[in-house]
């Protein structure tokens, strides 16, 4: 890396074309300008100017270093402009959450995106471990996790909780349901479904539940928006957080069967500790909190 002060002195010298004028602009002495030039030439390992009396011309190396100096100035100006102009409606924001919560959150983000053409919202549905890793690495500005990570480099805010739901067709809402009845319908599996089954079904059917690996399957889906679709058509049952049910396009065709023992999952909004959020990230945080507050 070229020393920034020497590079700026050289860039000013090239612009003015004169040692005295460069010294005046930089509030330096003329020998000071000459000293910076010599040090920069030593760092580059080549002469940067060719003297012709009191004037000079740039060597090929000098022309390349001058171009670099101008480029560095432009980069620094862009950086200062970005820092000084914290526009809520411009620039990127990166958010990560579960697939079910993403279905609920994304429609809430769309009005803001439509009204702000210079805004770029990146919403990633990801497993909890990936969200945690992305927050620590700085890939995500905000993440929604199911538990407080209790990590010294992260801070977490509890924004609500959502129920883990047994999802059935709408016409089955009031039907008595033993585990045998449920198993006869068959399970619509998905990547998180087996863990949900061990959580909710074991709690409510401790004597009959055989474990997720022994459930009778009717099908499996890995697209979060399609998991309730077969259930809506009367095929099987599934297990989803409340957000996945409420975001389904045909929610009226589903019912949430109330088991005797209910299970709730917390929602935690997580960000890097001590990080000053941009205006757009702060607004995204408000939208996330509002979406979480809609869950029953």
UniProtKB/TrEMBL annotation:
Q: Please give the InterPro entries that the UniProt record associates with this protein.
A: LysR_HTH_N, LysR_subst-bd, WH-like_DNA-bd_sf, WH_DNA-bd_sf
**Gene Ontology terms for molecular function:** DNA-binding transcription factor activity; transcription cis-regulatory region binding
Task: Show which residues constitute the signal peptide.
Answer: none
Q: Which keywords describe this protein according to UniProt?
A: DNA-binding, Transcription, Transcription regulation
Q: What protein family is recorded?
A: Belongs to the LysR transcriptional regulatory family.
Mind telling me which PANTHER family this protein's record contains? HTH-TYPE TRANSCRIPTIONAL REGULATOR, TRANSCRIPTIONAL REGULATOR LYSR FAMILY
UniProt name for this protein: LysR family transcriptional regulator
Q: Does the keyword Transcription regulation apply?
A: yes
Q: Which residues form the HTH lysR-type domain?
A: 1-59
Pfam families per UniProt: HTH_1, LysR_substrate
Report the source organism.
Answer: Roseivivax marinus
Q: Does the keyword Metal-binding apply?
A: no
């Amino acid at each position: 890396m070229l020393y920034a002060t020497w590079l700026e002195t050289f860039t000013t010298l090239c612009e003015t074309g004169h040692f005295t004028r460069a010294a005046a602009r930089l509030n330096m002495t003329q020998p000071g300008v000459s000293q910076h030039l010599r040090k920069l030439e030593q760092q580059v390992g080549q002469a940067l100017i060719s003297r012709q009396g009191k004037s000079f011309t740039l060597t090929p190396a000098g022309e390349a270093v001058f171009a670099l100096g101008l480029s560095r100035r432009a980069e620094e100006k862009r950086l200062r402009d970005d820092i000084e102009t914290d526009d809520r409606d411009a620039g990127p924001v990166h958010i990560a959450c579960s697939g079910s919560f993403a279905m609920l959150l994304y429609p809430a983000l769309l009005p803001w995106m439509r009204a702000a053409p210079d805004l770029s919202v990146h919403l990633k549905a990801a497993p909890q471990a990936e969200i945690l890793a992305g927050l620590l690495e700085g890939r995500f500005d905000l993440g929604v996790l199911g538990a407080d990570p209790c990590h010294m480099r992260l801070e977490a805010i509890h924004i609500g909780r959502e129920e883990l739901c047994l999802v059935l067709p709408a016409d089955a809402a009031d039907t008595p349901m033993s585990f045998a009845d449920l198993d006869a319908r068959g399970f619509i599996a998905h990547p998180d479904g087996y863990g949900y089954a061990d959580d909710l079904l074991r709690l409510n059917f401790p004597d009959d539940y055989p474990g997720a690996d022994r459930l009778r399957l009717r099908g499996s889906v890995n697209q979060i928006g399609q998991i309730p679709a077969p259930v809506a058509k009367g095929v099987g049952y599934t297990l989803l957080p409340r957000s996945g049910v409420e975001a389904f396009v045909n929610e009226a065709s589903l019912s949430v069967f109330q088991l005797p023992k209910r299970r709730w999952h917390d929602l935690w909004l997580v960000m890097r500790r001590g990080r000053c959020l941009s205006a757009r990230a702060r607004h995204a945080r408000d939208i996330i909190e509002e979406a979480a507050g809609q869950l029953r």
